[in-house]
Write a structure and sequence with these properties.
By secondary structure, this protein is α+β, with helices and mostly antiparallel strands. The protein has 10 helices and 19 strands.
Length: 394
C-alpha cells in the first residue's frame, strides 16, 4: 500500500515539500497492492506485493523497549512504514483504492504512524481489532488494513458507510489488487512453503505506472523474512527478525541489500526512529532574525510567492518551476504555527540549522543550509509526524 499527494519530480521537490512521510492520499482508483495469508494450522505466511511509483525501497528494524515490541518495517525512503511484523508474530499491510465516509476523532488518534503503533503494542488479531476500535485511523477513508497473527487468524479492517468494518477469518485468503489472480492460482492442497508463497506473489505482480516495487513474506511462526524484487531482477534475500533485532536498530536499501549484508550495519535514519521529534527540543535561539527569515521563506512558499534572492542560484533554478506544486502541498497542512530552533552549527561555508516546524496538521524536523551571504543552499525534511486527528491527505 502507498499513500501519495501526487508529488513526482526531482529529489529537491521532495525535500522542500515536507510531506514525504505524510503522503496519505490514494490518487488512483484501482486497488494498490495484493496481500494474502497462507496457513495450514502449523505455519503461517503473511505475503505482500507493494505496488507504487517510488523505486527507493527500504526495510528497517527497530528493537523493542519498555512498553513496546521490536519490529521490522517495510516501505520507502520517506521512513513511513507501509507494513511490517513484530516479535510476537503479528503482521500487517494496507490496500488502497477505496473512497469511504469516515469520521476522525482527534481525541482517540495515535501519535505518529498508526501502523507502527499497532505493531508495537499488539500481539494478536483480536488485539489489533480492539486497537482500531479504540483509536481513530484517518486512512480508512481511502484504504483497508490486512492483519494476521501466528495462529493463522486474519482480519481486514476498514470503513463502510461511516462505520468500522471488520472481516475476520481463520483460513488462508487474499485481498487487494490481484485478488482474483490469487484465488485462481491458490491451491489449498499445495505445500505451505516460502517458495510457493513467492510463486503466488509473482503471479500477482502489478505492471505499469504502479508496478510492484517489492514483495515480502513474513513467516509468523519463525520470524523468518523473505524479500523479493522481481521487477528489479534483484536476487531474493532471507533474514530473521530475532537475529536482526539483536543487531540493534538498522536498515537496508532493498536494491542494495546483498552488498550491504557484508558491510557494517547502517544505523536508523532520523525518519525511521521512534518519536524522533522528542530528541530535538527547542533550544535558545542566538539569532532570531535568521529564524524569522526561515519562517518567512515557508510562508512565501505557502502563498506561492517564493523569491529568487533568498536562494543560491543553483538551488533556485531547481525549485522555481515547482512553486505551484509546492504551494498546494504545503497548504494541505493547515496554518503555519511556529518555527523553533533545535540545533545550530557553524560550517566552513555558512550555517546549518535544524528547526521544528509546527503546522495545524503536522510537525516537521527540517534542516536548512544557509551560506555566509544569507542565501539558502538547501533544505530537507528529515522527519515528519502527523498531529493527532489530522488528515493532511484531504
Amino acid at each position: 500500500m502507498q499513500r501519495d499527494l501526487g508529488i513526482h519530480g526531482p529529489p529537491l521537490l521532495a525535500t522542500l515539500a515536507i510531506v514525504a512521510t505524510l503522503t496519505f492520499s490514494f490518487v488512483h482508483n484501482s486497488s494498490a497492492c495484493t496481500v494474502f495469508v497462507l496457513t495450514d494450522g502449523h505455519r503461517v505466511l503473511f505475503c505482500n506485493n507493494e505496488d507504487w511509483t517510488n523505486p527507493a525501497t527500504r526495510i528497517w528494524f527497530v528493537p523493542g523497549g519498555t512498553g513496546y515490541q521490536g519490529c521490522v518495517y517495510v516501505g520507502f525512503d520517506d521512513g513511513w512504514a507501509r507494513g511490517g511484523m513484530n516479535s510476537e508474530g503479528l503482521a500487517c499491510d494496507w490496500v488502497g483504492g477505496f473512497l469511504e465516509e469516515w469520521h476522525v476523532d482527534s481525541a482517540t488518534s495515535v501519535r505518529g504512524n498508526p501502523t507502527e503503533r499497532l505493531l508495537e503494542s499488539c500481539a494478536t488479531v483480536d488485539e489489533a481489532i480492539q486497537f482500531f476500535q479504540n483509536h481513530s485511523e484517518p486512512d480508512f477513508r481511502r484504504a483497508r488494513i490486512f492483519v494476521a497473527d501466528r495462529s493463522g487468524a486474519s482480519v481486514v479492517i476498514g470503513a463502510h458507510e461511516g462505520k468500522l468494518q471488520i472481516d475476520r477469518s481463520e483460513r488462508s485468503r487474499g485481498f487487494g489488487y490481484a485478488f482474483q489472480t490469487f484465488r485462481d492460482s491458490f491451491a489449498r492442497d499445495s505445500e505451505l512453503t516460502a517458495a510457493n508463497g513467492a510463486s503466488l506473489l509473482h503471479a500477482c505482480l502489478q505492471e505499469g505506472t504502479y508496478a510492484t516495487k517489492y514483495s515480502n513474506i513474513f513467516d509468523l511462526t519463525s520470524g523468518d523474512i523473505y524479500l523479493h524484487q522481481f521487477h528489479q531482477r534483484v536476487p531474493s534475500a532471507q533474514m530473521n527478525l530475532g537475529v536482526e533485532l539483536a543487531r540493534g536498530g538498522h536498515y537496508f536499501d532493498m536494491v542494495q541489500i546483498h552488498r550491504q549484508f557484508s558491510n557494517p550495519v547502517m544505523s536508523l535514519l532520523l525518519n525511521m526512529r521512534r518519536f524522533v521529534m522528542d530528541e530535538f527540543p527547542p533550544i535558545h535561539d542566538p539569532d532570531t532574525r535568521l529564524t524569522n527569515h526561515v519562517r518567512a521563506l515557508i510562508e512565501d512558499a505557502i502563498s506561492g510567492n517564493m523569491q529568487a534572492d533568498d536562494y543560491r542560484a543553483e538551488f533556485w533554478s531547481a525549485i522555481s518551476p515547482l512553486q505551484m506544486s509546492i504551494r498546494e502541498d504545503l497548504r494541505r497542512f493547515g496554518r503555519l504555527q511556529s518555527v523553533a530552533l533545535v540545533e545550530c552549527r557553524t560550517e566552513p561555508q555558512g550555517r546549518l540549522n535544524r528547526y521544528r516546524i509546527e503546522f495545524d496538521n503536522i510537525r516537521s524536523l527540517m534542516r536548512f543550509e544557509i551560506d555566509d551571504r544569507g542565501k539558502v543552499v538547501s533544505f530537507k525534511s528529515e522527519a515528519t509526524e502527523r498531529r493527532p486527528g489530522a488528515d493532511p491527505g484531504e
